[in-house]
Protein backbone atom coordinates (compact mmCIF):
# COMPACT_ATOMS: atom_id res chain seq x y z
CA UNK A 1 0.00 0.00 0.00
CA UNK A 2 1.05 3.58 -0.55
CA UNK A 3 3.18 5.58 1.88
CA UNK A 4 1.71 8.91 2.97
CA UNK A 5 3.71 11.73 4.55
CA UNK A 6 1.36 13.68 6.81
CA UNK A 7 2.76 17.10 7.69
CA UNK A 8 0.49 18.51 10.39
CA UNK A 9 1.19 20.35 13.65
CA UNK A 10 -2.17 19.91 15.42
CA UNK A 11 -2.13 16.70 17.44
CA UNK A 12 -5.87 16.07 17.18
CA UNK A 13 -5.72 16.22 13.38
CA UNK A 14 -2.57 14.14 12.86
CA UNK A 15 -3.76 11.57 15.39
CA UNK A 16 -7.20 11.29 13.76
CA UNK A 17 -5.86 11.16 10.20
CA UNK A 18 -2.93 8.84 10.84
CA UNK A 19 -5.09 6.29 12.69
CA UNK A 20 -7.78 6.30 10.00
CA UNK A 21 -5.29 6.14 7.13
CA UNK A 22 -3.43 3.23 8.77
CA UNK A 23 -6.75 1.38 9.17
CA UNK A 24 -7.19 1.80 5.40
CA UNK A 25 -3.84 0.11 4.85
CA UNK A 26 -1.66 3.14 4.20
CA UNK A 27 1.79 3.50 5.71
CA UNK A 28 1.88 6.89 7.45
CA UNK A 29 5.00 8.95 8.17
CA UNK A 30 4.47 12.01 10.40
CA UNK A 31 6.14 15.40 10.44
CA UNK A 32 5.04 18.24 12.70
CA UNK A 33 6.51 21.29 10.94
CA UNK A 34 7.38 22.26 7.39
CA UNK A 35 11.13 21.86 7.74
CA UNK A 36 10.74 18.33 9.15
CA UNK A 37 8.25 17.61 6.35
CA UNK A 38 10.73 18.56 3.63
CA UNK A 39 13.45 16.47 5.30
CA UNK A 40 11.18 13.42 5.70
CA UNK A 41 9.97 13.74 2.09
CA UNK A 42 13.60 13.47 0.98
CA UNK A 43 14.48 10.56 3.27
CA UNK A 44 11.29 8.45 3.38
CA UNK A 45 10.23 8.83 -0.28
CA UNK A 46 6.46 8.95 0.25
CA UNK A 47 4.01 8.27 -2.55
CA UNK A 48 1.95 11.31 -1.57
CA UNK A 49 2.15 14.22 0.88
CA UNK A 50 -0.73 15.69 2.91
CA UNK A 51 0.54 19.15 3.81
CA UNK A 52 -0.98 21.57 6.29
CA UNK A 53 -0.34 25.10 5.05
CA UNK A 54 -0.11 26.82 8.45
CA UNK A 55 2.92 25.17 10.01
CA UNK A 56 5.65 26.31 12.40
CA UNK A 57 9.34 26.64 11.44
CA UNK A 58 8.64 26.52 7.68
CA UNK A 59 5.08 27.14 6.49
CA UNK A 60 3.33 24.85 4.03
CA UNK A 61 3.60 27.38 1.20
CA UNK A 62 7.40 27.43 1.50
CA UNK A 63 7.60 23.67 2.05
CA UNK A 64 5.55 23.02 -1.12
CA UNK A 65 7.79 25.33 -3.17
CA UNK A 66 10.93 23.64 -1.76
CA UNK A 67 9.60 20.15 -2.53
CA UNK A 68 8.53 21.02 -6.08
CA UNK A 69 11.85 22.74 -6.86
CA UNK A 70 13.89 19.69 -5.78
CA UNK A 71 14.35 17.08 -8.52
CA UNK A 72 14.20 14.28 -5.92
CA UNK A 73 10.76 15.28 -4.58
CA UNK A 74 9.18 17.29 -7.39
CA UNK A 75 7.05 14.40 -8.69
CA UNK A 76 5.45 13.55 -5.32
CA UNK A 77 1.80 14.68 -5.34
CA UNK A 78 0.94 17.16 -2.58
CA UNK A 79 -2.56 17.70 -1.22
CA UNK A 80 -2.83 20.92 0.78
CA UNK A 81 -4.81 20.68 4.01
CA UNK A 82 -5.91 24.12 5.05
CA UNK A 83 -8.49 26.02 7.03
CA UNK A 84 -8.29 28.68 4.30
CA UNK A 85 -11.47 28.10 2.34
CA UNK A 86 -11.93 31.53 0.83
CA UNK A 87 -12.40 32.25 -2.83
CA UNK A 88 -9.03 32.02 -4.57
CA UNK A 89 -7.32 29.92 -1.88
CA UNK A 90 -7.35 26.80 -4.05
CA UNK A 91 -5.53 28.69 -6.80
CA UNK A 92 -2.96 30.00 -4.27
CA UNK A 93 -2.03 26.52 -3.04
CA UNK A 94 -1.80 25.24 -6.63
CA UNK A 95 0.52 28.15 -7.47
CA UNK A 96 2.66 27.24 -4.45
CA UNK A 97 3.16 23.77 -5.96
CA UNK A 98 0.41 21.67 -4.43
CA UNK A 99 -1.44 19.30 -6.74
CA UNK A 100 -4.77 19.43 -4.92
CA UNK A 101 -6.55 21.22 -2.10
CA UNK A 102 -8.65 19.94 0.82
CA UNK A 103 -10.30 22.46 3.15
CA UNK A 104 -10.53 21.76 6.87
CA UNK A 105 -12.40 20.38 8.66
CA UNK A 106 -11.35 17.18 6.93
CA UNK A 107 -14.03 15.21 5.09
CA UNK A 108 -12.28 11.82 5.31
CA UNK A 109 -14.19 10.08 2.51
CA UNK A 110 -13.53 13.00 0.15
CA UNK A 111 -9.87 13.05 1.18
CA UNK A 112 -9.61 9.31 0.40
CA UNK A 113 -11.02 10.01 -3.06
CA UNK A 114 -8.45 12.78 -3.58
CA UNK A 115 -5.62 10.51 -2.40
CA UNK A 116 -6.77 7.78 -4.79
CA UNK A 117 -6.96 10.24 -7.67
CA UNK A 118 -3.48 11.62 -6.94
CA UNK A 119 -2.05 8.10 -6.78
CA UNK A 120 -4.01 6.89 -9.79
CA UNK A 121 -5.70 4.20 -7.71
CA UNK A 122 -9.29 3.77 -6.56
CA UNK A 123 -9.93 4.63 -2.91
CA UNK A 124 -9.76 1.80 -0.41
CA UNK A 125 -13.29 0.77 0.65
Structure description:
- This protein has one domain: Response regulator (Rossmann fold), CATH 3.40.50.2300.
- The chain is an alpha/beta fold and 125 residues long.
- The model has no long low-confidence stretch (mean pLDDT 92).
- Helices cover 42% and strands 19% of the residues.
- The chain has a five-stranded parallel sheet, with helices on both faces.
- The two termini are 13 Å apart.
- Strand 1, helix 1 and strand 2 form a beta-alpha-beta unit.
- One of its GO terms (biological process) is phosphorelay signal transduction system.
- This is Chemotaxis protein CheY.
- Keywords: Phosphoprotein, Two-component regulatory system.
Number of domains: 1
What name is given to the CATH topology? Rossmann fold
How many strands, which pairing sense, and closed or not: the largest β-sheet? 5 strands, parallel
Number of separate strands: 5
CATH class: Alpha Beta
- How do the strands of the widest beta sheet line up side by side? 2-1-3-4-5
Question: Which value, in Å, is the CA radius of gyration?
Answer: 13 Å
Helix content: 40-55%
Give the uncertain stretches in residue-range form.
Answer: none
How far is the first residue's CA from the last residue's CA? 13 Å
N-to-C order of helices and strands:
EHEHEHEHEH
Structural class: alpha/beta
Average pLDDT over all residues: 92
Content of β-strand: 15-25%
Just name the CATH architecture.
Answer: 3-Layer(aba) Sandwich
Number of helical elements: 5
Domain Response regulatory: 3-119
Modified residues (4-aspartylphosphate): 52
GO biological process, one term: phosphorelay signal transduction system
Protein name: Chemotaxis protein CheY
Amino acid sequence: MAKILLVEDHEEIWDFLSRRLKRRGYEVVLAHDGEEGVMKARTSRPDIILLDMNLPVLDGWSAARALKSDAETSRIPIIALTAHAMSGDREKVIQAGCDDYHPKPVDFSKLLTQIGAALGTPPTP
